[in-house]
Design brief:
By secondary structure, the chain is an alpha+beta fold. Helix content is about 40%, strand content about 20%. It contains 14 helices and 19 strands. The longest helix has 22 residues.
């Protein structure tokens, strides 16, 4: 990643006589003296610095003449922590390894007070933080102090940069998708009557964690039968039954970048006639909607088009009548309660909103679904789509989704 240019662009966006404080994420206590693991860095901080160490802080300075200074402050471990946790990078380690920062220091009482004085000194203040509370007392004190000055928020600036993916970022997302493909192939071979959702949930994690620099981009959804009607089902206590469908919504996170894929599998290896009608209805909507992922449109516009197409399919399935498509959105949303898409990148629900105008280099999901309580059936099909100057590119097209390919995958 080109962190140097990202920081330089950010510095160039600041007024002269400015200071910007960019907060990374801190370790978070789980209970007692245990911390949540693995640690996940603030996406904005990681985007700028490439630094994944917890309790790190970036300070950008730009004096009245325009001269800049890039300072990284890192956590200072105690001697006891080094015994228990092992290696901690030193300021010299980071400075020599990254060649990105003018200064690297420990964040301690001395540097904490230096930063407080710097905040007072500069006329213009900027801040970026993703958390409302930090377990690091220095972080909380600095955050509360700079907020008294009503600083400019750098979130919009970082959003503009993060929305357009570089070639390096695209490569990382493609790698995350490839890992997800291999994982789903391995899991598909273990889908059979009598297995539990928890077994397959564990298998997903195993397949991700055995890959270097890889975790899950979000907690996987493994939902069989009527459990798939719950959009973000997390209990994973169901048992797979003959004749039911299994929905898996998952994605690898590779070097910080996310994939997000949903596929549906018949537990016995074959879709029933009714299941196939619903599955193909969802697939038809997805295929048509991917074609509409053009630069210049917005998520809001895509949602309107998807609702129209989905209502037509609901009429064909006999669940709604034609008047419902014109008069009653609530009836459509009873069976299709979520939106079509979200942005994808460092976060699985990445920066950008429903009114963001799509441009080449942006990546979004396409994930229509139908959830039919009367039939105890939930079907969602999700792919990751790259916006280009011409036709959209389905980055996850290698992951089987046509019913023949799904059935074939399960017996390979």
């Amino acid at each position: 990643m080109d962190n140097y240019n990202r920081i330089k662009k950010t510095l160039n966006s600041l007024q002269n006589n400015s200071i910007a404080i960019i907060f990374g994420s801190c370790k978070k206590k789980r209970n007692g003296d245990n911390f949540y693991y693995p640690f996940r860095q603030s996406s904005g901080f990681y985007y700028l610095t490439g630094i994944y160490y917890p309790d790190s802080l970036l300070v950008l300075e730009k004096d009245s003449s325009g001269k800049s200074n890039i300072l990284l402050l890192i956590y200072e471990p105690s001697a006891r922590e080094k015994i228990y946790a092992g290696y901690f990078p030193s300021p010299n380690d980071i400075k020599s390894k990254t060649k990105l920062f003018d200064e690297v220091e420990y964040l301690n009482n001395k540097t904490h007070h230096i930063i407080l004085e710097k905040i007072k000194f500069y006329k213009h203040k900027y801040v970026y933080n993703e958390d409302d509370y930090y377990e690091n007392m220095f972080f909380n004190d600095l955050r509360n102090y700079i907020l008294k000055y009503n600083p400019f928020d750098l979130s919009d600036w970082l959003t503009k940069m993060r929305l357009i993916k570089t070639d390096d970022e695209l490569d990382l997302i493609r790698k995350a998708i490839d890992i997800t493909l291999d994982t789903l192939k391995n899991v598909a071979k273990n889908i059979q009557e009598g297995e539990t959702e928890r077994d397959l949930y564990a298998l997903l994690h195993y397949n991700y964690l055995k890959e270097p620099d890889t975790f899950t981009s979000f907690e996987p959804i493994v939902a069989t039968g009527k459990n798939a009607i719950t959009l973000h089902y997390q209990q994973h206590n169901g048992k797979l039954k003959n004749g039911e469908l299994l929905l898996i919504d998952t994605g690898a996170e590779y070097k910080g970048y996310a994939a997000d894929i949903t596929r549906v599998f018949p537990v016995n290896g074959h879709f029933s006639a009714q299941q196939l009608k619903v599955y193909n209805a969802v697939l038809e909507v997805q295929i048509e909607m991917i074609k509409k992922y053009k630069h210049g449109t917005t998520i809001n516009e895509l949602n309107i088009e998807a609702d129209k197409l989905m209502c037509e399919q609901l009429v064909k399935l006999g669940l709604l009548n034609k008047k419902d498509c014109l008069l009653n959105e609530n009836k459509i949303k009873y069976y299709y309660p979520h939106g079509l898409t979200h942005f994808l990148g460092l976060d699985v629900h990445d920066v950008g909103d429903k009114n963001t105008i799509l441009k080449p280099g942006m990546i979004l999901t396409c994930e229509p679904g139908l959830y039919i309580p009367e039939w105890e059936m939930g079907i969602r099909i999700e792919d990751d789509i790259l916006i280009t100057e011409n036709e959209p590119v389905n980055l996850s097209e290698k992951i089987p989704k046509y019913y023949e390919d799904i059935e074939k995958l399960m017996i390979e």
